[in-house]
Amino acid sequence: MESLLKQIINQNEVVVALLGRMVFPENELKNIIMKKKKKPEDYIRAYNLCDGEHSLTEIAAAIKVSTGTLSPILAYWKSIGIVYEINETGRRVYKNLYSLKEPKQIEIEDAKISGESEQTSDKQQAETPQNSNTP
Description:
By secondary structure, the protein is mainly α. It has helices spanning 2-23, 26-34, 40-49, 56-63, 67-80, 105-127; strands at 83-88, 91-96.
C-alpha cells in the first residue's frame, strides 16, 4: 500500500511539473522569480530549494536572507501558483512546479535592469501631480 501511495504521489508530481511548464514556461518563470531582486540568482536557488524537503528557515539560510525577507516572497509565489506548501510530519515545506537551470549572466543583468526601470517609473508616477478638474 505504501509503495502504491508513493507511485501516485510521484505521478502527481510529474503531472504538476508538466502543467507548470505549460502555464509558466521556463523563461517566464525565471522572470517572475528574479524580477526586482538585488541578487536574482539567489532567488532561483531559493526556488529550486522548494523541493518538498526545505522549510522557510532552511531556504532563507541557504541564500543568506532573513525569514522576514523571504516569507512574503514565498507567499507571493504561492498566491500565483508557482509553489505550494506541504505539511510533512508537522513541518511546513515548500514544493515548486519544476526545477530551473541556473540563470545566465545576461538574464541576471536583465532582471536587475528591469527592476531598476520599474522602480524609477514607480517613483516618477508618485512624484507626478494628479490631474485636477480645476483650471
